[in-house]
Design the sequence.
C-alpha cells in the first residue's frame, strides 16, 4: 500500500472571515485487500458521513494478532496566535501546523498562528510506539475529519478504520483493542461501548470520561471567579465571535504574565490576585501542585535568613500555602485555554448543529443558581485558610462577591436548553461495561480531573454487576514524588522552573506520563491484554498487578481523588 503524507488544513474560520490556504486532500485509500505488510507503515484516507479521516498503520516485524486502534487528544481547530500557542504547547508539530493570519499581526506582533491538523497518531510517544511494536502489536490510529471536541468525528473515524482492518487492511487479526489519550480516551471508550462485538478491550488515559458539560463547568468556575474578582471584562461563555474568545484568553495571559513582577497586588476590583485565583481553582477542582510548584517546598532562604528578612528581600514562596497559590497561577493558564478556546469551538458546533441564529445563546452550562461558597470544602478552608485570608480581602469577602449575583440571569450565565440538548446528544461514554477496561490518569491534572476516571470506573462496575458479568476493570493513578520536587538555585529568590520540571518524574500535568519513560502506559497496555485473556478472578487479580508495577503508579490500589465539582451541569 502506498504511503502518503497528510497536509490538509481547516479551510476557513466563519466567525472571522479569515481564509486559510488548504493543500489538496489525501487521495482515496488503496484496495483494502492489500494488507499492510509486516514491518511496514501504511497511510491513507477513509471517508464517512462527517468527512474524510486520515489513518495510519504500523506493523511489527512479528505480529502477535492484536491490533491497537489509537485516538489522539484534543487539538484546537481554530488558528491560535503564536503568542498564545507557544506557551500552551500548541505549536507541537505532531498535532499542529503553522499558518498565517494577517489580522493577528497588529494585536499579537506577528501573523504566525498554529492550528490543529488531521494527522493520524498511533501512540502517545515514540517510546511507547517502539515498545509496543517490539511486543508484536500492530499499531493503528486516525486523524479525525475535524478538530476540536471531535467525539463524533473520532468515533466515526475509529469505526471506519476498524472496518477497513476487518476487510483486509491487516491480515491475521485475532482481536482489536481501542485506546486513546485525553479526548482520545473518551473516544476510545465510546467506540468500545458502541461496538461490543468488535472491541475486545479499551484503555483510556487521562480522559474526560464524564463528558463536555463537566469539563467546561470546571473551567467556567475558574473564569467566573476571575470575572467577579480579577478581570470584569471576561465574557466567560456564549462567544459570538473568535475575536471575543481570543480577547478573553489574552486577558488571562496578560494578568498571569505580569503577576510575578507584582506579587501581592490587588486586582482593579480590589481583590488579591493570587488568593482570588487560588479560590477559583480550588472550587473548580484544579490540582494543588503544578509542574514547578509541589505545594510543599518552602524557599530555603526563609530558614537561613529568617522570615522577615527573606520577605523584605523578595524571596518566595514563604509557605506551603504560598507554594500552592503559585502553582494555581500556573495551572489556571492551562485550564483557561480549554475553558475559552474549547468552549468557543463547542459553542460553534452547537450553532451549526442546531441552526440557531448567531445572536442566540450557545451556552450549555448554567451557573445562575450556583452557590459558590458551597464549592469550597471545609477541608480546603482548613488547609488553605491562612493563605486565602492573607490578602486584602479574606475568603468570605471573595465568596460574598461571587454569591451576590446568585439568581441573576444577567450577571450570571443561563444555559440555552437547545444548546444543552445538542451537547448532551454528542457521542460520549455512558459507563456501560462491554469489554475489559483499563483507566490510567495523572493524579494532579489541570485539564482533566482524575475523578473522571474514578466516577467512570464506578459506573462500569455497577453496570457489570447489574448484567451479572465478571468485571475486568482496572484503574491506576500516577503520583508525584512524596518528598517534593520544587528546586531552587543557590540563593534563588524563586523556584528554578527548569530544574523543577526535570525533577518531576510523574503525576503532575495533563497526561504527564513522559518523564517516567512512559512505563505506566506500556504496563497498562499489558494489563489490558492480560485482562482480555483472564477467565477467573485469580487471573484478573494477576492482570491488575501488572499495572500496579508501572513507574510512579500508586501501588496500594486505595487512592481516591477529590470528588468532581460539577456546578453548571444541567441534568437531562
Sequence:
Amino acid at each position: 500500500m502506498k504511503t502518503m503524507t497528510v497536509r490538509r488544513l481547516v479551510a476557513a474560520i466563519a466567525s472571522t472571515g479569515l481564509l486559510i490556504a488548504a493543500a489538496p486532500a489525501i487521495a482515496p485509500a488503496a484496495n483494502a485487500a492489500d494488507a499492510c505488510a509486516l514491518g511496514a507503515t501504511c497511510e491513507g484516507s477513509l471517508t464517512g458521513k462527517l468527512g474524510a479521516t486520515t489513518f495510519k498503520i504500523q506493523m511489527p516485524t512479528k505480529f502477535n494478532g492484536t491490533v491497537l486502534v489509537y485516538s489522539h487528544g484534543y487539538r484546537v481547530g481554530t488558528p491560535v496566535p503564536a503568542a498564545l500557542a507557544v506557551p500552551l504547547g500548541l505549536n507541537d508539530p505532531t498535532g499542529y501546523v503553522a499558518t498565517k493570519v494577517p489580522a493577528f499581526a497588529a494585536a499579537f506582533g506577528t501573523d504566525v498562528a498554529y492550528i490543529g491538523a488531521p494527522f493520524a497518531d498511533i501512540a502517545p510517544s515514540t517510546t511507547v510506539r517502539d515498545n509496543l511494536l517490539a511486543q508484536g502489536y500492530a499499531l493503528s490510529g486516525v486523524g479525525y475529519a475535524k478538530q476540536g471536541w471531535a467525539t463524533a468525528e473520532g468515533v466515526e473515524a475509529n469505526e471506519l478504520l476498524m472496518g477497513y482492518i476487518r476487510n483486509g487492511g491487516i491480515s491475521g487479526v485475532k482481536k482489536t483493542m481501542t485506546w486513546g489519550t485525553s479526548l482520545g480516551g473518551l473516544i476510545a471508550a465510546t467506540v468500545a461501548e458502541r461496538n461490543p462485538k468488535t472491541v475486545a478491550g479499551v484503555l483510556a488515559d487521562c480522559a474526560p470520561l464524564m463528558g463536555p458539560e463537566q469539563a467546561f463547568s470546571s473551567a467556567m468556575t475558574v473564569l467566573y471567579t476571575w470575572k467577579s474578582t480579577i478581570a470584569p471584562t471576561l465574557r466567560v461563555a456564549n462567544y459570538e465571535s473568535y475575536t471575543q474568545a481570543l480577547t478573553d484568553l489574552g486577558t488571562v495571559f496578560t494578568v498571569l504574565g505580569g503577576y510575578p513582577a507584582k506579587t501581592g497586588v490587588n486586582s482593579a476590583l480590589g481583590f488579591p490576585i493570587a488568593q482570588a485565583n487560588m479560590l477559583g481553582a480550588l472550587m473548580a477542582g484544579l490540582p494543588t501542585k503544578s509542574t514547578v510548584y509541589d505545594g510543599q517546598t518552602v524557599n530555603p532562604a526563609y530558614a537561613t535568613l529568617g522570615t522577615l528578612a527573606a520577605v523584605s528581600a523578595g524571596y518566595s514562596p514563604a509557605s506551603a500555602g504560598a507554594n500552592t497559590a503559585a502553582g494555581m497561577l500556573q495551572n489556571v493558564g492551562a485550564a483557561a485555554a480549554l475553558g475559552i478556546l474549547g468552549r468557543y469551538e463547542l459553542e460553534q458546533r452547537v450553532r451549526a448543529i442546531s441552526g440557531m441564529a448567531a445572536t442566540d445563546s450557545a451556552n450549555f452550562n448554567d451557573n445562575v443558581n450556583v452557590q459558590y461558597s458551597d464549592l469550597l470544602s471545609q477541608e480546603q478552608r482548613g488547609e488553605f485558610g491562612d493563605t486565602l485570608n492573607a490578602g486584602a480581602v479574606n475568603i468570605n469577602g471573595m465568596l460574598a462577591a461571587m454569591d451576590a449575583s446568585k439568581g441573576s440571569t444577567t450577571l450570571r450565565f443561563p444555559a440555552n436548553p437547545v444548546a444543552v440538548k445538542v451537547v448532551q446528544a454528542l457521542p460520549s461514554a455512558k459507563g456501560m461495561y462491554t469489554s475489559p477496561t483499563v483507566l490510567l490518569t495523572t493524579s494532579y491534572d489541570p485539564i482533566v480531573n482524575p475523578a473522571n476516571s474514578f466516577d467512570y470506573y464506578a459506573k462500569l462496575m455497577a453496570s457489570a454487576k447489574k448484567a451479572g458479568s465478571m468485571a475486568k476493570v482496572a484503574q491506576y493513578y500516577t503520583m508525584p514524588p512524596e518528598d517534593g520536587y520544587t528546586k531552587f538555585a543557590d540563593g534563588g529568590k524563586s523556584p528554578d522552573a527548569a530544574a523543577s520540571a526535570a525533577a518531576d518524574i510523574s503525576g503532575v500535568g495533563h497526561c504527564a506520563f513522559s518523564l517516567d519513560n512512559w512505563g505506566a502506559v506500556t504496563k497498562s497496555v499489558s494489563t489490558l491484554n492480560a485482562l482480555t485473556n483472564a477467565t477467573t478472578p485469580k487471573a484478573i487479580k494477576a492482570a491488575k498487578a501488572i499495572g500496579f508495577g508501572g513507574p510512579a503508579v500508586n501501588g496500594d490500589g486505595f487512592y481516591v481523588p477529590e470528588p468532581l465539582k460539577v456546578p453548571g451541569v444541567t441534568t437531562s
In short: Residues 77-116 form one domain. The chain is about 40% helix and 10% strand. Confidence is low (pLDDT under 50) at residues 1-30.
